[in-house]
Design a protein that fits this description.
By secondary structure, the chain is mainly alpha-helical. It contains five helices and no strands. 30% of the residues are buried.
Length: 166
């Protein structure tokens, strides 16, 4: 999967503010204790739509590259789609969602046990703010970890000429 095309065009799913749609579910998880569950589920729908759009974009890019006269494509369009889908699913939705969910739930539990004098609403807001503040901290380590795991597993199966440029 290429981060940028050979003409240095921007990858709108990775190099623009559109990238933040991939973090929608983390925001939903941070607000879980304060909002209806439908809001949290909607945040997962936004993030999942982003994942599918990015994977489709990578597939389309690989297809166009494979039609080029030089045909120096790193991998096939289906492999590009699968790679982006798996990477984004784990790095943008599954792992960060679980991380923020557990962090906020743990924070809420800890606050209730250690500072029971505070009202429940205060506990929920402190938990939510902690979750929101954790999002920028967890993103890069998760991205790198998913890269390492995929480079040592799935990507060995379908990338033929070189490892993907993340």
């Amino acid at each position: 999967m290429q981060k940028k095309t050979e003409t240095n065009d921007k990858d709108i799913f990775r190099d623009t503010p559109l990238r933040y749609l991939g973090y929608a579910n983390e925001v939903g998880e941070a607000f879980r204790s304060l909002v209806p569950k439908s809001f949290v589920w909607a945040s997962y729908m936004v993030a999942s739509t982003y994942v599918l759009a990015d994977a489709t974009s990578k597939c389309h890019y690989a297809l166009e590259k494979s039609k080029a006269p030089s045909n120096n494509a790193v991998t096939s369009p289906p492999a590009s789609f699968v790679d982006a889908l798996v990477w984004q699913s784990f790095a943008s939705v599954i792992i960060p969602g679980i991380t923020i969910n557990r962090l906020c739930a743990g924070m809420l539990f800890g606050l209730r046990k250690t500072i029971p004098i505070l009202p429940l609403t205060a506990h929920k807001w402190i938990s939510t703010i902690s979750g929101l503040l954790a999002i920028p901290i967890i993103i890069h380590p998760i991205d790198r970890s998913v890269d390492v795991v995929m480079n040592n597993s799935l990507r060995k199966l379908y990338f033929t000429k070189q490892s993907p440029d993340r």
